[in-house]
Amino acid sequence: MNAPHTTASRVIVITGASAGLGATLAATIAARGQARTLVLTARRLERLETLKSRLLERHPSLLIHTIAADLAEREAPARLASRILDLAGGVDVLINNAGLGLPNQFADGAYHQLADQIQVNFTSPLLLTRLLLPSLRERKGMVINIGSAITCVANSALGVYGATKAGIAYWNDALRRELAGTGVRVCLVEPGPFRSEFMDALTALVEPGGQLDPFLENASPWMSATIEEVAGRTADLLDRPRRRVSVTRRFVWLFRFLGLIAWILPPLGDRIVVAMSRRGPSTAAETKKDALVS
Length: 294
Known about the structure:
This protein has about 290 residues and is α/β, with parallel strands linked by helices. Helix content is about 45%, strand content about 15%. The protein is built from 10 helices and 7 strands. It has a 7-stranded parallel sheet, sandwiched between helices.
């Protein structure tokens, strides 16, 4: 089996790279010199090309490939994996970052939107990883999955989103144990809420006068992490792998406390979480994926 590639020759793939955490992560990795090649993929090719140009202005020696792919499409993982291997020849690090969130109650969600959310957040990361796994094993690479601290307490306003992230966390641990001894490292990043284009898009979909999360709207840096901090902690894993990284700040401890209450006293936990959920969006209008997925 081959030895791990050095930083100077490392190929890193980032899904959902056109905006938000994915774009910030690409910029962080480039600035630190942690890769020789970046493969950036998202639905919006024009935004990927803009990011590529900006990164190359600062880091002209970096090799960057951009691939347009809509991970909501059933065949997207297979097409994307094939294209990645054709362009880069192999993969050292796969960062499953792409995410789709819809701020509505499950019963109000349109069927195709729910199906897209499950495909983008859960099915596609698993299948893409499986297709790239031979290369990752050969190169003793790394898989980094972006989860969410929201899984600590079930919130009906983000029920499907939270369920997909909980599924990612379970699969992440199962895969890590399966690959123990192969040289492939598997890491999970669980951010708490942080201000980003993704969160701005969710907030914009709330009914007039409503709030997606009144706590987050007024949260200070002391309470919630910044997108740069989440990107930095994620990039740290490239040099110092860890099983799980939580970028929570104090905001998330409220929800972990609620999760503990719900576990110890289910009726009380249900009453509290239901009351909080009703302060948020009750019905989201039909939306374009452009607003929610990078």
